[in-house]
């Protein structure tokens, strides 16, 4: 498949670009499988060999993207008449602009700084020793600010918006600030309201394990099929940290089993299944083209949270699921500890805590608000890194009423900052908001939606998501997808209504 | 890692080449994992997406090998003083010559013909219908002859030797003919002698299953560890057809379990472990460089056959293994059906049959001799393809005394010819010969070698193979490796002695 000659007419430029981006897509699929294998299957001694393969494929991908005539081709391609082709060209230009904005030396320096800092972070977290992390984290922050400034200059954005745009194309700080301000104002009242309502009921008495891993895995697969996961185009496996990865037509989710607690793994499977349904629902005609990709991390997170939080932690879902779960795990479906009410109360339990990834639906946004405040201040140069622990702990106290006793349980808990992923945190809570908004819209279109769920029938929900979210891929902006699907741009109202309804009985 | 400027001095040419070949090595490692995954793990619906990734990585690999300045770099590189670097440069030139010899159009035509023919072969074999295969197999043969002629012209070899050289660098028809003539002369007598000796003993009465797959897999891993397989740099998994694949420091073998018969899977694991020990024993300093690769398919097959046939089908090995096997599979080690004698007689049983892959050690070479005669005659234009079935069946009858009742059990049984792998078959029997020769030499150096095996101690054997075969990689020719290790070039004597000793009591 050679490219056309350099003097080929301009209308071939789009075809040439499509071929090159397809090749990059195929490399990305290979990287998806190599990454999955690394985290699930690979023997420990292969780490170096695998890192070499992944680095080489990444260099080849980058080499195609930044090839010498890429800019000319992108400039020469005439605007396609077809809307999807036009959107594809727009996405090609966006990806190319991101890739070209940062000089190769800075790319490498940032990558090295992150590798060094990730290593330092493992011991710093273990020892709760922020001081030991400060030098390498300072370097990561400096390199990240340089990347942000380079991308800001090239893309005409503010530095923080340039970082955000890598994960959530088109989302800006000006979109986030008013929403997060509103959340910050409402959250403390919401949390105390939820805790008050919860005190009115006894804590649920749960079934006692051990629950065999094989039975939990079989249950996970049953649930995947129930929500609509296509098992001929994906898998469920085990990894230390659950994820959704793999490749096109090969979407691989993972979970981790504990014999004493089946709900963690099960809710994890349902969460990752939400991500996977999005990937499996992207239009196959546009596979390996930029326009065929999922539309950013907020919308991706909305799909996992819609499935896990909105739907599968509902009383309706548990009414159907409780006997299925009891049956799969050898429990007595008639016993009170296996009842829908017990399981539903357990999966909607609110307990303010220090660790973000263990947080419930009500307190989770507080963790994100704190991180967003901290990282915008740090990127914009309004705070010194040495002041981070105290500022972090102050805000946790303000929002959750907790005193962080050591940094291991505070600003050292997440890998995002050490690994250079600044600008990522807000997508979690934007995703939670969009999930509530989409669920409301789906239910408005199909008033019996939750009755279907209560019969284990996800077809109405999935079909609505396919049409209004999945099939649109990156053909329009995330804001337009949400607006077209719900009648309003992404906002906090549906999310706050959902939390008040589920947790405060309003 | 940019290449040096085009006007860089010649002594940088070698460094540039080493960097490029390393990159090709990393791509080959990625392809090894993607191929393993395809055959063990991949969901069925991912076939198309995976084929695209594999094709793209192959094109990128080929693109580096045939890059515009590759020939100049290979010509400009001065002869390195270091023997391994010199051998590396020689191997780079050999691989480049092979890659450049065939014009891209012919590469593609040959690949398409093979894909079409493989598809036709699946139904032709099922229906035992050679006529339906004839058109597509004719096209494969024609394209293969064109490839052979192109490589012959570029490499200064005969057409068949040019094909052979792809799988077994340096081996020529003139090396094979006298050896195979000798085997053809001796084989009928050997087979009848073996059958006669076998008639003197009753057929072994084997343990009755079912043998749980999980217990068989655990036994396989025990045996892998026993022979020296490094489980931190490899794995055992399940596939339809057993193979040894994966990547550097990540050697993955597979087998297939039947609940009624544990010996097939077990012997398969030991066979693939022989291949794997070779890969794990290649010098790590030369990973991803041409000189660091295994030295051709005959030597590779010698390592699997030395392990499986020479060592693990011996009475000595079974003396140690029988109670381990009984214990792993829940058998009674004291019962006669689990005795070393019973298991040893079963794994050395001779039974002439139609199917090559099911053949025992004594009749196997007959299958190879027939295929070698056929494929040399076809490539050299001395036989028409339509005459293949009759000629094939005649020779099977002459060597094994069997009348092939249908082509499904004759010339249609193997995928090699439909898939374009002409010149591969002789490496199986060359490997069997070399295995016997290496085993004799190892035993001469360590007279207690088989006493160690009878205690389940493979360290002496493995250490000898590491020094005399594995660590040499592709630093010298296969003939030199065998000569240095055994004092003689590859020949049939040790192999015939082994067969007469084990099967004819001589």
TrEMBL record, chains A, B:
- Provide the GO biological process annotations: proteolysis
* Residues engaged in binding Zn(2+): 271, 275, 301
Task: Kindly state which reaction or reactions the protein catalyses.
Answer: Release of a C-terminal amino acid with broad specificity, except for -Pro
Which top EC class is named for this enzyme in its record? hydrolase
Q: Does the keyword Cell division apply?
A: no
Q: Which SUPFAM superfamilies match?
A: Metalloproteases ('zincins'), catalytic domain
The organism's superkingdom is given as Bacteria
Q: Residues in the active site? A: 272 (proton donor/acceptor)
Sorted alphabetically, which InterPro entries does this protein's record hold?
A: Peptidase_M32_Taq (IPR001333)
Gene3D superfamilies given for it? Answer: 1.10.1370.30
Enzyme Commission no: 3.4.17.19
CDD domains named among the record's database cross-references = M32_Taq
- UniProt KW keywords: Carboxypeptidase, Hydrolase, Metal-binding, Metalloprotease, Protease, Zinc
Q: Which coenzymes or cofactors are required?
A: Zn(2+)
* Transmembrane domains' residue ranges: none
What does the note accompanying the cofactor annotation read? Binds 1 zinc ion per subunit.
Q: Name one GO molecular function term.
A: metal ion binding
A Pfam family annotated for this UniProt entry: Peptidase_M32
**Function in brief:** Broad specificity carboxypetidase that releases amino acids sequentially from the C-terminus, including neutral, aromatic, polar and basic residues.
Q: Which family does it belong to?
A: Belongs to the peptidase M32 family.
Provide the protein name: Metal-dependent carboxypeptidase
Organism (species): Novacetimonas maltaceti
């Amino acid at each position: 498949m050679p490219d056309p000659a350099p003097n080929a007419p301009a209308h071939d430029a789009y075809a040439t670009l499509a071929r090159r981006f397809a090749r990059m897509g195929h490399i990305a699929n290979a990287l998806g499988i190599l990454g999955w294998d690394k985290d699930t299957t690979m023997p420990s001694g292969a780490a170096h060999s695998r890192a070499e393969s992944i680095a080489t494929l990444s260099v080849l991908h980058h080499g195609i993207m930044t090839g010498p005539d890429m800019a000319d081709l992108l400039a020469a391609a005439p605007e396609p008449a077809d809307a999807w082709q036009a959107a594809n060209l727009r996405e090609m230009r966006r990806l190319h602009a991101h890739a070209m904005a940062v000089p190769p030396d800075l790319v490498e320096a940032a990558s090295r700084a992150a590798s060094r800092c990730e290593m330092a972070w493992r011991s710093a977290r273990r020892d709760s020793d922020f001081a030991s992390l400060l030098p390498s984290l300072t370097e990561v922050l400096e390199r990240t600010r340089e990347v942000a400034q380079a991308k800001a200059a090239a893309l005409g954005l503010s530095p923080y918006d340039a970082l955000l745009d890598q994960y959530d194309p088109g989302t800006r700080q000006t979109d986030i600030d008013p929403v997060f301000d509103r959340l910050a104002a409402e959250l403390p009242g919401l949390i105390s309201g939820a805790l008050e309502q919860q005190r009115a009921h006894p804590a649920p008495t749960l079934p006692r394990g051990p629950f065999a891993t094989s039975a939990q895995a079989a249950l996970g697969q049953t649930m995947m099929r129930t929500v609509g996961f296509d098992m001929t185009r994906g898998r469920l496996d085990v990894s230390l940290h659950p994820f959704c990865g793999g490749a096109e037509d090969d979407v691989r989710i993972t979970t981790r089993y504990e014999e004493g607690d089946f709900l963690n793994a099960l809710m994890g499977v349902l969460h990752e299944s939400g991500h996977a349904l999005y990937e499996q629902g992207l239009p196959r005609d546009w596979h390996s083209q930029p326009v065929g990709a999922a539309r950013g991390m907020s919308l991706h997170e909305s799909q996992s949270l819609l499935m896990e939080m909105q739907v599968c932690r509902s009383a309706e879902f548990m009414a159907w699921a409780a006997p299925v779960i009891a049956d799969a795990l050898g429990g007595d479906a008639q016993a009170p500890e296996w009842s829908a009410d017990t399981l539903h109360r357990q999966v909607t339990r609110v307990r303010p805590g220090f660790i973000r990834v263990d947080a419930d639906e009500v307190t989770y946004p507080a963790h994100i608000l704190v991180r967003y405040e901290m990282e915008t201040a740090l990127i914009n140069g309004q705070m010194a890194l040495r002041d981070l622990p105290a500022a972090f702990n102050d805000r946790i106290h303000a929002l959750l009423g907790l005193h962080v006793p050591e940094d291991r349980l505070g600003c050292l808990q997440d890998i995002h900052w050490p690994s250079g992923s600044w600008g990522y945190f807000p997508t979690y809570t934007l995703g939670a908001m969009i999930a509530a908004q989409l669920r409301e819209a789906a239910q408005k279109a199909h008033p019996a939606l939750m009755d279907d769920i209560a019969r284990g029938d996800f077809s109405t929900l999935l079909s609505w998501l396919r049409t209004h979210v999945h099939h649109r891929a990156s053909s329009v902006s995330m804001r337009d997808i949400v607006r077209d699907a719900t009648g309003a741009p992404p906002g906090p109202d549906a999310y706050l209504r959902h939390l008040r309804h589920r947790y405060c009985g309003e």
